[in-house]
Amino acid sequence: LRAGAYYFGKVCEEPSKEFMLCRSEERDPRKCLAEGREVTKCALDFFRKAKKACRKQFDEYATCLEWSSSEMDYYHCRKTQAALDSCMLDKLGIERPHLGYFSMPRIPHTERPRPEKGYRDDYPQTPKVEDDFPRTPARVGTRSIIT
């Protein structure tokens, strides 16, 4: 998954942004199931195409990432990364995004209507414990609040 992460992020950028926008606006994952399915569908399509077109380079790069360091650092595998980059560009027309591409600010445009601002239910305050309420002694330490 990490070997194809940059390409996946580039190819499935729109469905991913739509899903993340839905998650942040709705605050209820059940309302974003359709958008989640679109991201999953896009990911499956992308990885099937990538494996079909560049399987050897993809597997070599993934193996290098897995075995070169415990953190799966990219800088140990630049040769296999270059081979995968050229294969993805030649056969699928997908260029690897530049460093910092995914951290650039973007304003997503969507066809989904904005959700209504929901107000939280007003819950009553928890009643205070009466002073004469029986309290069992603490087994360890104290129950007094240190100020």
UniProtKB/TrEMBL annotation:
Belongs to the complex I NDUFA8 subunit family. GO terms for cellular component: mitochondrion. Keywords: Disulfide bond, Electron transport, Mitochondrion, Repeat, Respiratory chain, Transport, Ubiquinone. GO terms for biological process: mitochondrial electron transport, NADH to ubiquinone. Residues 104-147 are annotated as: Disordered. Residues 108-134 have a biased composition (Basic and acidic residues). Transmembrane segments: none annotated. This is Putative ubiquinone dehydrogenase ovary overexpressed. InterPro entries: NDUFA8. It is found in: Mitochondrion. Accessory subunit of the mitochondrial membrane respiratory chain NADH dehydrogenase (Complex I), that is believed not to be involved in catalysis. Complex I functions in the transfer of electrons from NADH to the respiratory chain. The immediate electron acceptor for the enzyme is believed to be ubiquinone. It comes from Rhipicephalus microplus (Cattle tick).
